Amino acid sequence: MKGKVALHNLGCKVNAYETEAMQQMLEAAGYEIVPFEPGADIYVINTCTVTNIADRKSRQMLHKAKKMNPDAIVVAAGCYVQADTKKAEADASIDIIIGNNKKQELISILENYRSGQQKTTECVDINHTKEYEKLEIDRTEEHTRAYLKVQDGCNQFCTYCMIPYARGRIRSKKTEDVVGEVKRLAASGCQEVVLTGIHLSSYGKERPEEQENLLTLIQAVHEVDGIERIRLGSLEPGIITKEFAKAISSLPKVCPHFHLSLQSGCTATLKRMNRRYTAQEYREKCEILRKYYPAPALTTDVITGFPGETEEEFEESRSFVDSIHFYETHIFPYSKREGTKAAVMPDQLPEQIKKERSRVLIALGQERQREYMEQFLGKKKEVLFEEQQKIQGQTYWTGHTMEYLKVAVISEENLENKRVMVQLQNIIGQDLILAE
């Protein structure tokens, strides 16, 4: 064995995929993977920079790793070190800095460091690279569901967001490479893939001559035997057209579960955010999906207390969110991110107001979630079961429907990775349906 490696992931599903890919590279190279505890020889932290809090958590994990074993090699990878390489270079707890688009070289970077023991920085100018980083997984720790990164980078430059600076411009994995990876995952027993990216809706746009886009990718993945479900990561409203919705609704493996990023239900606020659509246009996209799917699970993100958000604008946003009837709303009080346009905008709101507005939307979201779930009670749905869980002292098998409703049943049989038709009975807690 070349040594014991502990990995820790911070941030989004794209980061989680990259961490899994790095773990599989390390295993293939002869390293032993161990828990993120004292005793490892190497600690690899895949960092996040989406908010100031994410930066702080990244630093805390890097310092924790060095504290757990002062002689260990600490590798800081990903967005935090890409966005502020100088700060990472000044941090004594970090031995190796690996920016985005360099994680594929982890093994050679590690081996070079071990022969020279010099602090190493491997970062490309992410804003001028067109190369898509070759990272792959051939199995997933979850067994049933695999998150698959198919796209990187973002060209949108929303005023509150740091990600284009940390991830660079849009670039995509070739369809044939995605299909190859999906086939290997299917061979390992995986039945569901979630296509993810930093800006998934941009898939293939940087290569118009190849005529690859998100729809052609979904159609190609749909052909893979063994994959029974295709779920989509976060989408921009602009991709939802009648043609797109009609085409995917004819593919039975595509889950009727769509995360359409909103951020605000007020058009004036959306303009300050540089979101490139109006509230009315967003509503039309939801109506298109509901035309082609009888009861799609629509989920979203909303920011409260964005700079300049008046009481009237918040009420407009709240009323809009109320009228769409989302299955889930992820609510975030606006978090000032240094280096973005929004951070220096006038009329920054006090934390107390941001939190109070969040509280209002969270309560509304919980009402709407229950309303969405109730329409399925008494109906039969297919559930892909994942694991056993103890709930209120009783052991259940839990899994998800195509809409991503979480369902629990009592069964003597081992249901892991099995798709079973069950009748949905009643809701317990905030988000769980008991079935039989």
Characterization of the model:
It holds the Pfam family Radical_SAM. Its EC number is 2.8.4.5. InterPro entries: Elp3/MiaA/NifB-like_rSAM, Methylthiotransferase, Methylthiotransferase_CS, Methylthiotransferase_N, Methylthiotransferase_N_sf, MiaB-like_bact, rSAM, rSAM_horseshoe. The protein has three domains: 119 residues, 3-Layer(aba) Sandwich (Rossmann fold); 231 residues, Alpha-Beta Horseshoe (pyruvate-formate lyase- activating enzyme), CATH 3.80.30; 57 residues. The protein is built from 13 helices and 18 strands. It is 34% helix and 23% strand. With 436 residues, it is α/β, with parallel strands linked by helices.
Q: Tell me, what is the CATH class of the largest domain?
A: Alpha Beta
Biggest sheet, spatial arrangement of strands: 2-1-3-4-5-6
Overall SS class: alpha/beta
Regions with pLDDT < 50 over 5+ consecutive residues? none
Indicate the percent of residues in helices: 25-40%
Identify the CATH homologous superfamily of the largest domain: tm_1862 like domain
What's the number of extended β-strand segments?
Answer: 18
Termini separation comes to: 48 Å
Radius of gyration: 22 Å
Number of helices: 13
Q: Total domains, how many?
A: 3
In CATH, the topology of the largest domain is named pyruvate-formate lyase- activating enzyme
Shape estimate: globular
CATH architecture of the largest domain: Alpha-Beta Horseshoe
Mean pLDDT: 96
Strand content bin: 15-25%
Major sheet characteristics: 6 strands, parallel
